[in-house]
Amino acid sequence: MSSIKETVLQKFAEVYGSAEGAKVYFAPGRVNLIGEHTDYNGGHVFPCALNIGTYGVARKREDNKLRFFSMNFEQRGVIESSLKSFVPGGDKNWTAYPKGVMWAFEQRGMKMPVGIDLLLFGNIPNGSGLSSSASVEVLTGSILRDLFGFEVTNQDLALIGQYSENKYNLVNCGIMDQFAIAMGKKDCAIFLDTATLQYEYAPVVLDGAKIVISSSNKKRGLGDSKYNERRSECETALAELQKVIDVKNLGELDEATFEKYKDAIKDDVRRKRAKHAVYENQRTLKAVAALKAGDLAQFGQLMNASHVSLRDDYEVTGIELDTLAEEAWKVPGVIGSRMTGAGFGGCSVSIVKDEAVDDFIARVGEAYEKKIGYPATFYVVQVGDGPTIL
């Protein structure tokens, strides 16, 4: 961390003339271990924060100018804006994420008195499905809280980040990403009921195993993926079920109840979508119980079953993610592997025994490049804390 801290401070000085009075902040990325596409269906999710994420250097200005620079998009240079230029849906570059959070704070009566100079550096791959956008949102919120003394909790930061993504960036995301990042805790995943925001920390004790993220290197954007389509399919299926059974969301159903009433859903495709939402939520409950009981093998089997359901019932995987998961399942020492995130590109997450990690990366990497035509990238990660001031 310290070397990254020095690097970003040095770059800030280079871009903005000096680093005097600037502070350095960090917000993690996240990976969801199981519970995919359940968050907007009122189900449970089980994400954890990572030790990779987004670094920010920020300093107050004397005027109302906003200046942004990203080390990940250096060719774009400094992007200038002002406190008067918040237009929901109007920003067509990466600054939409920090600006959305500034706007969302303003909507809650927390107006920035002056502008800031901001530099960002992320070591999460862009478009990978590890929530680089939510990481930037939570980071921006924690910077505003610190610089201007706004009284907000970490849970508020999650809700503000989601609000900004929904209302400023017009992406209909659930709460999971921002919540996992804002509330991250080292060596723990967050067992979150997205319907009530009740949560508990569950220790992720991977004795003799590592979490390996495999990035497909296929770019995807949430807004233009089939994400909103899946949401509306589930909403329609829920409305059909509500004619025959009293439920608020799909997450309230168990498998037996779903099987009993599923014929109320008039369309085969919608029935498959709803089945995934119900069964995936139940898998998540079972997976957390398995982890608490120290049964990593059972946890891994549920991860594998999650991928199959996302592939066959929810249809959000695609050839890249299927190749990553299916090749992983062939490698001895892989406890479980599945796609993670919204799908259609992005990443898979695998739990791999220590002694098998190198073999896993070599074998899956070779098979993937042979089939897809370009390489995947692998990250051996740890479960990290939430946002911090460095």
What do these coordinates show?
The chain is α+β, with helices and mostly antiparallel strands and 390 residues long. It folds into 2 domains: 2-33 and 49-185, Ribosomal Protein S5, domain 2, CATH 3.30.230.10; 209-381, GHMP kinase, C-terminal domain (Alpha-Beta Plaits), CATH 3.30.70.890. It is 41% helix and 21% strand. The protein has helices spanning 2-16, 96-107, 132-148, 154-167, 176-182, 227-242, 255-261, 268-292, 296-312, 318-329, 357-372; strands spanning 23-32, 44-45, 47-60, 65-70, 79-82, 116-122, 188-193, 198-203, 209-215, 334-340, 347-353, 377-381, 388-389. The strands form 3 sheets. Strands 5-4-6-3-1-13 form a 6-stranded mixed sheet, sandwiched between helices. A 4-stranded antiparallel sheet has the order 10-11-9-12. Strands 2-7-8 form a 3-stranded antiparallel sheet, with helices on one face. α8 (268-292) runs antiparallel to α9. It is globular. The model has no long low-confidence stretch (mean pLDDT 94).
Note the run of SSEs as H and E: HEEEEEHEHHHEEEHHHHHEEHEE
- Give the biggest beta sheet: 6 strands, mixed
Strand pairing plus helix content: what structural class?
A: alpha+beta
Number of domains: 2
Strand fraction: 15-25%
CATH architecture of the largest domain: 2-Layer Sandwich
Helix count equals: 11
Q: Can you give the mean pLDDT?
A: 94
Which residue ranges are poorly predicted, with pLDDT under 50 across at least 5 consecutive positions? none
**CATH topology grouping of the largest domain:** Alpha-Beta Plaits
Indicate the percent of residues in helices. 40-55%
Kindly provide the name of the CATH class of the largest domain. Alpha Beta
> How many β-strands, per DSSP?
13
- What is the terminal-to-terminal distance? 8 Å
Which strand order spans the largest sheet, edge to edge or round the barrel? 5-4-6-3-1-13
Radius of gyration (CA) equals: 21 Å
Backbone shape: globular
Question: What is the oligomer described by this structure?
Answer: single chain
CATH superfamily of the largest domain: GHMP kinase, C-terminal domain
